[in-house]
Structures are given as C-alpha cells and as structure tokens.
Amino acid sequence: MRRIRRDFAVTACVCMIAGMLAGCGNSDSTPKDPDEIITLRILENDTAKSKGYLDELLNAFNEAHKEEGIVAVDANMDEYSNLAENGPYGYGPDVIYQANDKLMAYASDKHILPISPEDYECAEYIPEQAWDAFRLQVDGESYTCGIPVNIQEPMLFYRADKMPENWETEWDDDGNGVADFFENWNDLYAYSKYLRDTDPSANKDSQYGFMASFNNLYLNGEFIFSYGGYVFGKNADGTLNTEDIGFGKGNAATGLMALRQMAGLMNEGCIDDTITSTRYEKVADGTYFCTVSTPDTYTLFVEKLALQYEDSGMSKEEAQAKAEENLKMVELPVRLPADGDLSRDSSELADGDWVESVVMGGVNGYGISSYTKYKDACVEFVNFATSYDMIKTRQEMLGIAPTRSDVSAESGDQTSELIFQSLSENRIYLMPSVKEVDQIWTPSQTLLGDVAKDSFRANSGETEKYKTVEDMQTALDGVSKNIYDAIYTLAD
Amino acid sequence: MKKIRVYASSVVMGSGQLMQGQWIKGLLYLGCLAAFVTYLVTTGVTDIIGFFTLGTETADPWLGTKGDDSILMMLRGILAFFIIAAYGLLHAANIRDVKEGEEALAQGKKLPSFWKAFRTFTDRKFYVVALFVPIVGVLILNVLPIVFMILISFTNYGGDIVPPALVDWVGLDNYGKILTLTEIKGTFFRILGWNLVWAVLATFLNYFGGLGLALLLNKKCVKGKTFWRTFPILAYAIPGFITLLGFKFLFSYGGPINYYITMNGGTAVGFLDIDAGIKAKLIGLLVNTWCSVPTSMLLATGILSNMNTDLYDAASIDGAGRWKQFTKITLPFVVFSTTPVIITSFIGNFNNFGVFYFLRGGLYNDGYFLASDTDLLINWLYNLSIDNNYYGIGAAVSLVIFIITSVISLSVYVRSNAYRKEDSFR
Q: Are B226 and B234 in contact (CB under 8 A)?
C-alpha cells in the first residue's frame, strides 16, 4: 500500500512538471481566423461609467460596427491605471480617455500614438487651442497625440433661488445685469462676509458665501496664476522648461495672501477635502451660497438639488426641472485685487487696481495606445466617440463643455464658448502637457492647505506662519524647490 | 577504466552511465545535457549577455521598433542563472551517481536496472520527489522576485528611465544617494528613527492591550464574557482600510469630533493636518491599537486557557501577590509561547503601510523629501517608487528595510527563551 501511494505521488509529480512545462512554449498570438473579432479595450473615466455614458457609447459603437467584426468593451481598469507599466506587456487599454497632462505624460514616452487630426471628422469643429493641449515636440517635430473631447476649468456653482432679493439694486453697481460678486473677488468676499455676519444660527454655521477646499491647486490656481506665478517656464522655442518652476514668480505671494483672507470667511473644512466632499449637499441645502467645481460635476449638483426639492414635497419630475432651472454654473470672477486685499471696497478700485483672473484648466480627450494591435479600429472608435451624436449625448449625460463647436452651438449652452473665450484671452492656464507635472500636486496641495489653515491659527492660539508677503514668498519658493528636487534630485 | 567513466560523465553528462551499461539513465542524463545545450544556444547565452548589458537597442513604439526591454532581460537573465544552477546540481548528481556505480562494480555487485534504481530512489529520497515541485514554485514565485528587487536597487530604473528607455547598472549609486544626498539622507534617518519608535510602541500597545483585555475577560467576576468578546472581534472583522477611513473622517475638520468641539464653542482641531505632528502620531498609534488588539486578545485568550491554575494556587500559598503572579507566571508563559508572534507583529508594525497612508496621505512636510513627518519607511518607499517612479532608489530602501527587520527579528528571536529553552520550558 505504501509503495502504491509513493508511485502515485511520483506519477502526480511527473504530471505536474509536465503541466508546468506545457506552459513554457511560445503562445501563438497571430490570428488564425481572418474573420476574427477585433476587441478594443476602452478606458473611460469613472463619471462616464457611473452615469452610464460608457455603456451608451459602447452599445452604439458595437451596433454600428457589428458587420465589421469590431467590438469595443470596457477595459475594466482604474481610470488612472498606468499605461506605461501595463501597455508594453499587453495589459493596457487600446483607447484611453484622460486629461491632457496625463495623456501627454504618456505621449512624451511614446506610449500614446501620434495621430493625424485630418483622420477625424471632428477636427474641423475643434479650436486650435484645444489641439495645442495635445501637441508634443520630439526632435524638433510637432506631433498631435490626442483628440480633444471637452474642456475643463473651475466654475462657480450656485443656486439662482438663493440670490439675494435685492441683488440688482445692492449688488450690481455697474448695472450690467450680472451680480458684482460674480464679476470680482472683492465683492464675492464682501457678500460672503455679509452672509457670515448675518448668520442667524447660534453656532454661526448655517450660511456661508463662497466655499472651497483650498488644498486643491487645480480649483484654486487663480490665486497664483493671476499674479504672475506659473508651473513651468518656457524655452526660447516655446517648449516647456521644467527646470524653471515658477510658483513663487511674479506677485504670486500677494495672491496667496488673498486666498488666506478668503479662507477666513469659511470654516476649517477649507483646509482639507471636507468642502469638496460636502459641496453638493451644502449648495443644495443652501448652507453654501456658491462653490467651485468643474463642469463635469454639474449633474451631481443638480442631482442633490433635485433630491432636496423632492424632500420638500415636489414630484420627481418637478424637482428635476426646478433643480435644472435653479442650479447655475458661471465662470469664476474675472477680477482679483492687485494688492491681494479682498476687503477693499470694489467701488474704490480703479481699473489698474485689478488683475485679470487666470484659472487652471485642462482639455480631456482620447489617445490611442502605442501597444494596440488594431490601430485602424481604434481610429474608427475614436471617430465614432467624437462624432456629433456621441459628443452631444456625452454633454447631455455628463454636463461637459464639449470642444466641438457645433455641439455647443446647437445646445445653446454657452459654457464651452465662455471657456474658449477665456482660453483665447489667456485667462486659462492649461495644465502643462509634460510628465513632470505629476510632481506639482502634492507639494502645492500641502502649501495651499497650510495657507488656508493660517487664517484659523490665531483663534486656536497658534502662531501664524504667513503674516506677511515675505513669509508667503519664502513658502512659495520652498514649494518650487521641493518640486524641482522631486523631479531632478534622483533623476541622474 | 574506473576513472575514465567518471571523467567521461564529468565531461559529457550520462556518458559514464552509458559506459556502465545503464542505458536509460545514461540517455536521460544525455537528454538533459542536450536540452541544456539547446537552451544555452537558443536563448541562454543571449539571456546571460542581456543580463549584463540590460539591452542595447531602445524600443520606439511609434516606429514599431521592438527594441530591448531591460526589465524583461534582467528577469530572463536571473532565470538563466537559476537554470544553470539547476543544471550544475544535476551534473553533480550525475557524477555522484557514476561514482556510486563504479564503487558497486568494484565490489562485484550488479548495477540495478533503471526502474529498480528509480523505485529505490523515490523510496529512499521520497522527500526530494515530494518537495521538488514546491521548491521550484518557491524559487520562481518567491526567490526570483526578491532577487529581482535586490538587483533593481543596483540600477537606475525610475524617473526618466522607464521603458522604452534602457536601464543600466549603476552599482551602489542608489545606496550612496540614500546616505549622501542631503535631502534623501535627512529624510531617511528621520523616518527611520520614527519608524523604530513607532514599531516598538505599536507592538507594545497591541500586545499588552490584547493581553490585558484577555486577562480582564478571563476574570471570573466578569459577567457575559462571550458578549464582551464579541466587540473586539467585530472590530477585527471589519476590513482595516474601512476602519482607517472611518477614523480619518472622525478626526477630520468636517468630522463629528470637531463638530462637537465647535458646537460647544471650541475651535476646530487639526488632528491630522500639516501641523498635527505628535497629535497625528498618537492618533496613528491609537487607531493601530484599535485594529490590532483583537488579534492579540484572541491569541492571548487561547494561550491563557492552557495555563495550569495550580501554579497560581501554589504562588498564593507562597505569598505572591497578583502583580508578582502576573510577572512571574502569566507573562513568562505567554511571552514564551508568543515570541514568534511578537516578532512578526513588530515586523508588521515596522512595515505598517495602511495606517498613515489612509489617515494622512497626500502631505509632504518641510524638511522631508517626498514624505510627511508621520510617514514610515514603507510609506516613503511607496511615495518614491509608485507615486514618483523612482524604482531603483525605492528598491534600495526596501532592501534596507529588509536588512533592518531581519537583523532585529533574528537577534531578538535567538536571544529569546522560545528559541533557547524550547524543550525545557513547561
């Protein structure tokens, strides 16, 4: 019996080894069947997935291309999964949707294929500035590595029904029909202060004006870029010089003094992500008069506001209609005080006392992986996904600001037009399309949160760190140095 | 003749066996030699050369130029060395076998048939047969990645040098950077100091927290022990990162603790923000204790149930108080049984990634290079290698972590009673 057991064990071992060796041969990845189905893996962003847009897109594409044997499927990967690590080994997506900084970081290492804009039907409807976000210089040649879909910049979200009743008489000094607090930051500060001063609750926490998590460079970049600060400088040929890090350049320190001042009218939630997490509910319930976010979150604000209306007894349809009517999205105020003092009366400031607001922005688009086996099918897919119908559907379902001028013109939504106007007037600082940009976020987030916290230090008996512009300048120079170190210290 | 057959097998594996008339065995050895030579000729030599060069032709995905993949070449090179080592062992076995055959022949014995020899081998050395596949698995799945990680620390992999760029060997440069570059050196030693303090405190709190709870719930006077034991087990059953995110919310500016502080007229406290410093460290210890005490409690409860209660009766008669009984009877017994667990707990805490990643990720403090003042080496390693792509330096840090934890745990273990008095303590 013992002998039989051992023979059996030996046989099993031999079988296992044979099994292991069987897997060592070369796998034949060449298609054997000329009619083989081409499967494209599409990596979209999480919002497109959660809102059902990706399913809509895949179903429409698959239906339209069922005769050609092309099937598009969800890549089922994290939206920020690393193409540089997965792509070369065959695990990456074939088509990837990302913001220009991420996409171009891949492109600079050639993980994304260059494309010819003329291959795409959408090309003629997309402004040059959007294409520029996807252009790359390699050995003196310019390549385009992405197809723009939508443009993003921080926008101000508010409830129209929460506007002060007397805004036309009290908050519209120039009488242009636009409330002053949507036109300049001093009036936004003044109105926020008014709301804080008149807060009826015992704990003074029931009404706020402008609210934002200040630890986010993308959403609060105007306090740096409007004052001459920048991320990376430029070389003589117009390409980015990543050794020149300019967070402390110009009067950026003055701008951050304004941010610090504004934080004083908020609560400590502006130091971390608290306001970012709660902004949808707080705008909906009226606690925050306005907040900052990106256009693609519009539907989330509407959703929460509709729920609020439903709770107050409206039917679902009524609530949705009223939420869409009342939830407004406008550009951030275009004027900031040159001296960084938001508390000054705007009526006393001359034109030269202002600086024009420059916000951070980005263009999202599709890129085609260099590791795809089916380049032509990918072009076909991107052409379909950037077609008039699909971009229109995307706009309707996700509330994006499309780069296709025909879609935005037809919809009557002026958001895209406004954003492109700002872009052409240099009021949007596009996220640099280089991979070094990855290193800017954490150091800047840390500083912005710390500056916001400075407004609360005195109340809690702590020593204030940024009392003067010089203190702020030192901190900004420190951030630039940290970013430089992160990029170059270990790069040799 | 005797020596000729041994020499023959030394030169051409299996030839000695063939000359001894062991045809099947000889042919099998010859087959292995042929397979090995074929491997060397087809890929082996290329893989070994590739291991040293790490590639010479850069890939260009735009042009469809496949080029060399340094990382893959390194892996194939390591595998080639494994295969050569395996062949070396087989070759030694072949010489040993032919020598044994010669000795048997010299004694006038008849050499056994192949099948008889095979059955004898599988009977006498069954452990070799049974362990062959698991050992190969361990070599491929465990040893190879460790060797790979160690070798990566001697390259410039990371930063701008990621595929398709070619990686190069840089010797001890990465270790040199850790020890000489001001930013890196300062950060490394600061984090290492905090990491050691953290590991000791966290292990102490977890261990004695669990033991204390187990002793408390073992008391005869405690009613409803099963009921009370349920609560720590519930905490244990909830996935760690959920608990950590819960605690992060609890201590955030918008969380309930600050809500009640401000509601009562106080000022919100930045428990985990950039200035938190010692507050964040203490919260980290508290949260880690919350997550880990149930494990220690369950372990201690099991061990305490094996205690001989007569010892306590005897100690009481001898006049020992409760504290004396604890330090002289309970503690030595529990520590003896759990020394390996304390060591693994120490290593676990030393490499505790989750606590500060979830509680306080996304912050870089002044004076730290890509790290915050609560980050442990493992968090810094993550920041370097995953967030910032500095794989080479990250691998060097991980090797340093490995050396530190190995030295500490081994030196503690060999000095412990659990190791020295394994057979004597009862």
A: no
Question: Chain A contact for B179, CB < 8 A?
Answer: no
CATH number of A38-145+362-425: 3.40.190.10
Number of neighbouring beta carbons within 10 Å of residue B191 = 25
User: For A446-481, how does the pLDDT look when each residue is reduced to its tens digit (9 = 90+)?
Assistant: 999 999 999 999 988 889 999 999 999 999 999 999
B268 and A267 in contact by Cβ < 8 A?
A: yes
A266 contacts in B (CB within 8 Å)?
none
Q: Which of B253, B257, B258, B363 to mutate to test the interface with A (most CBs of A within 10 A)?
A: B253
- Listed in sequence order, the residues at least 6 apart from A370 whose beta carbon sits closer than 8 Å to its beta carbon are A87, A110, A111, A112, A113, B61, B62
Which residue in the set B69, B133, B183 is minimally distant from A489, CB to CB?
Answer: B183
**Inter-chain touch B129–A13, beta carbons under 8 Å:** yes
How far is Cα A407 from Cα B242, in angstroms, rounded to an integer? Answer: 43
Dump pLDDT digits (tens) for A421-442: 888 788 899 889 888 888 899 9
Residues 90-109 of B with CB under 8 A from A: none
Predicted TM-score of the model (pTM): 0.79
Dihedral of CA atoms A8, A12, A15, A21 in degrees, nearest 10, equals: -140
Give the pLDDT confidence of B184-206 residue by residue, as tens digits.
888 999 999 999 999 999 999 99
Contact A268 B258 (CB under 8 A): yes
ipTM above 0.85? no
How sure is the predictor about A398, in pLDDT bands with cuts at 50, 70 and 90?
confident
Residue A9: pLDDT band (50, 70, 90) is very low
| Parallel, antiparallel or unpaired: strands A208-211 and A288-293 | parallel
Q: Which CATH number fits domain A155-358+437-489: 2.30.42.60, 3.40.190.10, 3.40.50.2300, 3.50.90.10?
A: 3.40.190.10
- For residue A369, which phi and psi values (nearest 5 degrees)? -65, 140
Per-domain residue ranges of chain A: 38-145+362-425, 155-358+437-489
CB A412 within 8 Å of CB A183: no
Q: Which domains does chain B have, with CATH numbers?
A: 2-171 (no CATH), 176-420 (1.10.3720.10)
